[in-house]
Amino acid sequence: MRDALARLNALGADAVGISPDAAAVQKKFSDKLALNFPLLSDSDHAAAEAYGVWGEKSLYGKRYFGVTRSAFLIDENGKMIAAWPKISPDETVPRVLAALTSPPS
Asked: Which CATH number do you get for residue 55?
């Protein structure tokens, strides 16, 4: 998203990241990667639950709760235009750009 932000902005879009990490952790991550868009802390995972991306996960047989990486395209009125659950970081920008440049259906 960082490297595509100028293209997104040219299409009238902005980027925001949200995770359950604390604000201090978000700041450190943002500084390390020189991110040019805001990262929001959802430490009570209210936003993740509202968007249906908070749930039980499994890694190497260990079960835990966490966020399923997802992307959402939301218009200026708050209407969700597109959603990509379980999207990889490599797919996010191409999918968002395609949605922004495709004619409305």
From this structure: 3.40.30.10
The Cα angle at residue 22 between residues 44 and 90, in degrees rounded to 5: 95
Q: Report residue 38: phi and psi, to 5°.
A: -75, 145
pTM: 0.87
The answer to whether 37 touches 4, Cβ cutoff 8 Å, is no
Count of structural domains, the chain: 1
Residue 82 sits in which domain range? Answer: 5-101
Asked if residues 70 and 53 have their Cβ atoms less than 8 Å apart, the reply is: yes
Residues 81, 58, 20, 55, Cα dihedral to 10°: 50
| pLDDT tens-digit map of 11-67 | 999 999 999 999 999 999 999 999 999 999 999 999 999 999 999 999 999 999 999
